[in-house]
Amino acid sequence: MSAGWSWYVIALVVLNIFGCAWLLWWTSRRRPGDPAPEQTSHVWDGDLTEYNKPLPKWWINLFYLTIAFSIGYLIWYPGLGNFPGLGHWTSQSEQKHDAQVAAATLEKTFAPYQGQPIDVLARNPQALKLGKAIFGNNCAVCHGSAGKGAIGYPNLTDTIWHWGGSPDQILETIQHGREGVMPAWGKVLEGMGGPDAVDYVIAYVRQLGQQGGAPNDFAASRGKALYEGVCVACHGPEGKGNPAMGAPDLTDAYWLYGDSREALRETIRNGRHGVMPAWGEILGDTRTRLVAAYVWSLSHPNGSATTPESR
C-alpha cells in the first residue's frame, strides 16, 4: 500500500471513531428547551403518556468502552494503513504458526512409517488408509478417486506401467515426477512414405501383438518399414516399449490417449507431452511412501510382493 493510500485509510478510520464518539455524546445530552422526561405532551386515551427519558448511564458508558476498545485494538493490531501495530501480528505469521503445529501433528502420525519399504507398507491396513487419504487429496484430481485414470492420465489399477511397476519405480515416479514426450512424426513420416504414411503406421501398430505378429496387408506392410525407420528406437523392434524412457508397449490393449483412429493420428502426427508432477518436495519422503504403497496395492490387492510385468 502506498503512503498516500495509507494516510487515507488512517484518516478515514480516525474520522469514523471520533464521529461515533461525537454522535453518542451529542444525542445523549439534554439541551436547553428540551421537555422534561414526563412532559412530552404526547398522551393517548387519557392516561397513556410518552416519556422522554435518556438511555441509562451504564448503557452509554458501555458504548464509550467499545470505542476505547477499538482504539486499543487498532494500536495493538494492524488496521491503520501501513502501521504494523505494537503487537506486530500478521496473518502470515499466524498461518505459519498454524502450519508448524499441523506439520508437527502430521509428523507424529507418520513417524511409525518412516523409511519403510513400499511392499511392507502395502500390507499394513493403517498405512494403506493414510495412503488412500493422501491420494484422494493430491492424486485423485488426475487419476480419479478410484485410480482408474482417464484419457491422458494412466490407470493405476492394472499391471501396465510405462515407467516400470516395481515398488521402487513407483516411488521414484511419485517423488521425482515423469515427463513423457512423444515427438511429432507426421511430417517426417509423410516425407518418407507419402500423405498416408501415418495411417500405414497405425495399421502396423494395430497388428502388433496379434497372433503370428506379421502384417499381411498392404498398409501394415508399408507401416512396418516406416515403423522400423522411425519408431523402433523407443518402442523396440517388437513394439514392447521401454520403461526406462516411458515408451509404452504397443502390443497390449491399453492406449493412454485413446485407441480410435483419430486419437492415434493425433498422437503420431502431432505428438504428445505428458507430465507427472514431482511430489517429493511437496509431500516429503514418508507421505510419498504411503501413497506409493496405496498405488502399488491397487494392482496387488493381496499384498503380494511379486511385481507384475513392467510394461
UniProtKB/TrEMBL annotation:
<feature type="domain" description="Cytochrome c">
    <location>
        <begin position="218"/>
        <end position="299"/>
    </location>
</feature>
<feature type="binding site" description="covalent">
    <location>
        <position position="231"/>
    </location>
    <ligand>
        <name>heme c 2</name>
    </ligand>
</feature>
<keyword id="KW-0249">Electron transport</keyword>
<dbReference type="InterPro" id="IPR032858">
    <property type="entry name" value="CcoP_N"/>
</dbReference>
<keyword id="KW-0677">Repeat</keyword>
<feature type="binding site" description="axial binding residue">
    <location>
        <position position="235"/>
    </location>
    <ligand>
        <name>heme c 2</name>
    </ligand>
</feature>
<dbReference type="GO" id="GO:0005886">
    <property type="term" value="C:plasma membrane"/>
</dbReference>
<dbReference type="InterPro" id="IPR050597">
    <property type="entry name" value="Cytochrome_c_Oxidase_Subunit"/>
</dbReference>
<keyword id="KW-0406">Ion transport</keyword>
<keyword id="KW-0679">Respiratory chain</keyword>
<dbReference type="InterPro" id="IPR008168">
    <property type="entry name" value="Cyt_C_IC"/>
</dbReference>
<dbReference type="GO" id="GO:1902600">
    <property type="term" value="P:proton transmembrane transport"/>
</dbReference>
<keyword id="KW-0472">Membrane</keyword>
<feature type="binding site" description="covalent">
    <location>
        <position position="234"/>
    </location>
    <ligand>
        <name>heme c 2</name>
    </ligand>
</feature>
<comment type="function">
    <text>C-type cytochrome. Part of the cbb3-type cytochrome c oxidase complex.</text>
</comment>
<dbReference type="GO" id="GO:0020037">
    <property type="term" value="F:heme binding"/>
</dbReference>
<feature type="transmembrane region" description="Helical">
    <location>
        <begin position="6"/>
        <end position="25"/>
    </location>
</feature>
<keyword id="KW-0408">Iron</keyword>
<comment type="pathway">
    <text>Energy metabolism; oxidative phosphorylation.</text>
</comment>
<feature type="binding site" description="axial binding residue">
    <location>
        <position position="143"/>
    </location>
    <ligand>
        <name>heme c 1</name>
    </ligand>
</feature>
<feature type="binding site" description="covalent">
    <location>
        <position position="139"/>
    </location>
    <ligand>
        <name>heme c 1</name>
    </ligand>
</feature>
<dbReference type="InterPro" id="IPR004678">
    <property type="entry name" value="Cyt_c_oxidase_cbb3_su3"/>
</dbReference>
<dbReference type="GO" id="GO:0005506">
    <property type="term" value="F:iron ion binding"/>
</dbReference>
<dbReference type="GO" id="GO:0016491">
    <property type="term" value="F:oxidoreductase activity"/>
</dbReference>
<keyword id="KW-1003">Cell membrane</keyword>
<keyword id="KW-0375">Hydrogen ion transport</keyword>
<keyword id="KW-0813">Transport</keyword>
<dbReference type="Pfam" id="PF13442">
    <property type="entry name" value="Cytochrome_CBB3"/>
</dbReference>
<dbReference type="InterPro" id="IPR038414">
    <property type="entry name" value="CcoP_N_sf"/>
</dbReference>
<keyword id="KW-0560">Oxidoreductase</keyword>
<dbReference type="GO" id="GO:0006119">
    <property type="term" value="P:oxidative phosphorylation"/>
</dbReference>
<keyword id="KW-0479">Metal-binding</keyword>
<keyword id="KW-1133">Transmembrane helix</keyword>
<feature type="transmembrane region" description="Helical">
    <location>
        <begin position="58"/>
        <end position="76"/>
    </location>
</feature>
<dbReference type="InterPro" id="IPR009056">
    <property type="entry name" value="Cyt_c-like_dom"/>
</dbReference>
<keyword id="KW-0997">Cell inner membrane</keyword>
<protein>
    <recommendedName>
        <fullName>Cbb3-type cytochrome c oxidase subunit</fullName>
    </recommendedName>
</protein>
<keyword id="KW-0812">Transmembrane</keyword>
<comment type="similarity">
    <text>Belongs to the CcoP / FixP family.</text>
</comment>
<comment type="subunit">
    <text>Component of the cbb3-type cytochrome c oxidase.</text>
</comment>
<dbReference type="Pfam" id="PF14715">
    <property type="entry name" value="FixP_N"/>
</dbReference>
<feature type="binding site" description="covalent">
    <location>
        <position position="142"/>
    </location>
    <ligand>
        <name>heme c 1</name>
    </ligand>
</feature>
